[in-house]
From TrEMBL:
This is Chromosome partitioning protein. It comes from the Bacteria. Residues 66-230 form the AAA domain. Pfam families: AAA_31 (PF13614).
């Protein structure tokens, strides 16, 4: 167990504190926090004390590969892209290495981060499996694979192509993603071929819902699609949960949130809600990362809480 692995475990378990674990393991002084700060290995004696405690908290189950989450809803304008972007930023700020994939030919995610497709895009890799996904770096821990209108052509070209729902999964397997903790896929507003590619490439789906009548009607179709994929492929893709976005403090939103919680009792509905905030459109309008635009915005904090809830 290296100090790097221990540091990663703490990042993936935000409910644990270094001080608490240090005490529980009976490690004297501040040896663990000092080692983590200085990136120095622990002594064998301290490692022997620490290991059983960390195993008790699930160290052995720590994922070795990136967890892939598709952000899905066939309804348009319900916060899929915004959630991919700010949740990605929030996770990256926790020290996790995050890759975001723009699976929407509108290219909104790429635009938010001002990443162009001049060095390649998702479409290239979906058409030719020998082309790895062109990963672009945004900041130390945050990366994106961009898209533009070219992706729309892929849908028609792939219509009768073999394994046309597995092209993104195949592209991810030929791309070097070692070291990434999370891969977030921003889906287009449909349950067509591109979203099917995203779902098939994922471990789970996160569904963004604006608590209004038009957004709640038809929500069932997403769960049906995920179930169908699992029935026919046996892939075991999970529903990560439902997250309410652009929430207003009014009785209509309150009523629809209750309706969703009642209707989908078998699924997780995140306690963290993303409230409507003018900061989102302001930051996006000037193509600034949310936390660069405003380091302590309410909406940024909400996405940090969502990241913590997702990790717990
Ligand atoms: N919490 C929020 N507060 C205020 N505005 C928001 C919020 N989240 C998203 N928006 C705005 O709402 C619009 C739709 O959001 P977004 O693009 O994230 O949705 P989407 O589901 O990805 O849309 P599409 O289906 O077209 O891809 C955008 O203009 C975005 O700036
Ligand atoms: Mg979008």
């Amino acid at each position: 167990m290296t100090i790097e692995q221990i540091a990663k475990f703490f990042k993936l378990k935000p409910s644990l504190t270094v001080a608490g674990i240090q005490k529980e393991a009976g490690i004297k002084g501040n040896a663990l926090s000092t080692a983590l700060q200085n990136k120095e290995e622990l002594s064998k004696m301290n490692l022997d004390k620490l290991l059983p405690i960390l195993i008790g908290y699930g160290y052995n189950a720590m994922p070795q590969k990136a967890k892939i989450i598709a952000i899905v809803n066939n309804k348009g304008g319900v916060g899929k892209t915004t959630t991919t972007a700010i949740l990605g930023e929030a996770m990256a700020r926790k020290g996790l290495k995050v890759l975001m994939i723009d699976m929407d030919s509108q290219g909104n995610l790429s635009q938010i981060f001002s990443i162009s497709t001049e060095n390649g895009q998702v479409a290239d890799s979906m058409l030719d499996n020998k082309v790895p996904l062109p990963i672009q770096q945004i900041n130390e821990n945050l990366f994106v694979v961009p898209s533009d209108l070219e992706l729309q052509k892929v849908e028609s070209v792939l219509l009768t192509a073999p394994s046309n729902q597995l092209r993104l999964k195949a592209a991810l397997s030929t791309t070097a993603t070692v070291g990434f903790d999370f891969i977030l896929i921003d889906c287009p507003p449909s349950l067509g071929l591109l979203t099917m590619n995203a779902i098939n490439a994922s471990n789970s789906c996160l569904i963004t819902v604006q608590p209004e009548s038009s957004a709640v009607v038809g929500l069932n179709s997403i769960f049906d699609v995920i179930e169908d994929v699992n029935v026919y492929s046996g892939a075991g893709i999970k529903v990560e949960g439902i997250v309410f976005t652009m929430v207003k403090n009014n009785s209509v939103h309150t009523a629809f949130k209750e309706l969703v919680r009642e209707t989908y009792q078998n699924f997780k509905v995140f306690n963290t809600e993303i409230k409507e905030s003018v900061d989102v459109s302001k930051a996006q309008a000037i193509r600034r990362e949310m936390f660069v635009y405003k380091s302590n915005s309410t909406v940024g904090k909400a996405y940090e809480e969502l990241a913590t809830e997702l990790l717990s």
